[in-house]
Sequence to fold (105 residues):
Amino acid sequence: MPNKSSTNTGPPGVDRTRIRNHLVLSLNLHTITTIEAGNEEFDDPDSPYPQYLLSRTINSCVVPDKMSVELLGMYLERRILEGEKRFLVDGFPWTEREAAIFEED
Fold:
């Protein structure tokens, strides 16, 4: 199956959540967020990221773009190994740099 992507953007009030939910149900997509990807690292005792992510959260700092993409990539790889094939990544990318890094990888 070829890789396909779609972007669901718009200003407040256009009901992106309803559109997202419709896409998930009608296309049988697995919804993920970058926050889920980061949170999963806290449950992995071998992960090198929990302390760093915790310090960024405590200090109200954004995770660097490259790390966001790396965490998302690892999360997607695990879901693919579990048999998931189609994803809707909610809230990503946040920056143009994240999009560029994701496309490179």
Summary: Helices lie at 16-27, 34-42, 50-58, 65-81, 96-104. The two ends are 19 Å apart (CA to CA). The CA atoms of residues 55 and 61 lie 8 Å apart.
